[in-house]
Write a structure and sequence with these properties.
The chain is of the alpha/beta class. It is built from 10 helices and 8 strands. An 8-stranded mixed beta sheet has the order 1-2-4-3-5-6-7-8, with helices on both faces. Strand 1 and strand 2 form a beta hairpin.
Length: 270
Amino acid sequence: MGSGMFPVPGAELYYEVRGSGPVLLTILGGGSDAAMAAPLAEALAARYTVITYDRRGFTRSPLSGPPGEQRVEEHADDALRLLDASGGTPALVFASHSGALIGLDLLARCPDRVRRLVAHEPPAFGLLPDAGRWLRLSEETAELCRSEGVGPAARRLGEETGMAAPPEPDPRLPEWVRAMLTRMKANLGTSLLYEQLPFSRYVPDAAALRPLPLVPACGADTRGPIRDCTLALARRLRAEVAELPGDHVGYLRLPAEFGAALHGLLSAAA
């Protein structure tokens, strides 16, 4: 595995590269970092050159100035720069949760750089009939984070969306998992304060995306508003939702099964 730092406007991105073959960029969401995509990357490294990274402001990707509102478009520009540095040919992209919003923006604005995008459970709340409710929830959880801290805000968000905050690191877990969970907990504040609200306002450009190589996907075990968002996006795209193994983090819990199913979706781009 190779790793390094990649400069972008306003930040430096920590990245990891595994394997050989067509370039596959992974973009995760929330407080995740490259470690959460590592098991999937290992499962796919025999088939792809897998690039994983910590998004700006998270873990090992420091901002060059004080934190501020995070925009989907700025993160998509980061992903584009990583792709440009990886070579001139269009790349495959797997993106999950808020990372899927980034992937959708990247594909809509730079379709010549993306060979195929699998957008896994994008929280496109703006496509739901009760979009205002979810926007208010983002505002309320950001304020709760400021007034009472990360824990109460994360619990409130989890109760409404069905996605629990990362658990406390259990001493029985492998060291790398404990370290990842510790980093994710530290990243949650950044996500709740600076990312949740602006990302909730983002509405994918369905008209631009409709003719492009895009697969909306959802975990077979995922229920609740995140599945509703994926279905709403698929309706706008006039597309079917592909089911992938597991739940919202099936790529971490079931990397071999998830990787095999993902390969099936990606290889359709060949």
